[in-house]
Amino acid sequence: MKVLAAGVMPLLLVLHWKHGAGSPLPITPVNATCTTRHPCHSNVMSQIRNQLAQLNGSANALFILYYTAQGEPFPNNLDKLCAPNVTDFPPFHTNGTEKAKLVELYRIVAYLGAALGNITQDQKLLNPNALSLHSKLSVTADVMRGLLSNVHCRLCNKYHVAHVDVAYGPDTSDKDVFQKKKLGCQLLGKYKQVIGVVTQAF
Question: What is the pLDDT of residues 76-124, one digit of tens each?
Fold first, then answer.
């Protein structure tokens, strides 16, 4: 699976990779002590809300930039080619406790961070001149890394959660060019849909 591991991993967490897309991966052993390198900022929830708002505010522009860069038939067939039909996407329940929502948010951001790594790598090969798209994907991944770190900090320091199972999206390495483009479009469509719901929940 080709992901940029450092891009989805908060400080001091080691991901134990397993082969096979979508496999649940333990972040830390179940009996591990929950520690962070630095104490959380007192306004960590405010930072989380701001990062979610930043991602939500740029998600539609990223989606448009992506499908435009793919060329035909994508821009004229969004409903068919870019529908957010991602079956293994982590669920999110808006009516949960803060702890439950943060755990689900952690899973979503870990999933999306890995997916963005794959999409970015594919796009650098498939659309090497789409520099604005590459830049937007990179900025989005950077915000997600910060968000993942903040969510981890809050879960660890307030709720003593040292273990979250996460699943990563589909591996694109064995897919043809069209399927890579389509899957990226579906994932970014799903991201655009979900990030709005998650942002409202916090």
Answer: 999 999 999 888 899 999 999 999 999 999 999 999 999 999 999 999 9
Are 143 and 191 in contact, with CB atoms under 8 Å apart? no
Could you give phi then psi for residue 198, rounded to 5 degrees?
-65, -40
> Amino acid letter at 128?
P
- Alpha-carbon span 6 to 11, nearest angstrom: 9
pTM over 0.85: no
Q: 196 vs 1, 16, 29, 186, CA distance in Å?
A: 28, 30, 32, 16
Distance CA 97, CA 13 (A): 24
Can you say whether the dihedral through the CA atoms of 146, 147, 148, 154 is positive or negative?
positive
Report how far Cα 77 is from the mean position of its chain's Cα atoms: 25
The two structure tokens encoding residue 122: 């594919």
> Scanning the structure block, which residue is given the tokens 């949960």?
96
Count of alpha carbons within 13 angstroms of residue 150, beta-carbon side = 20
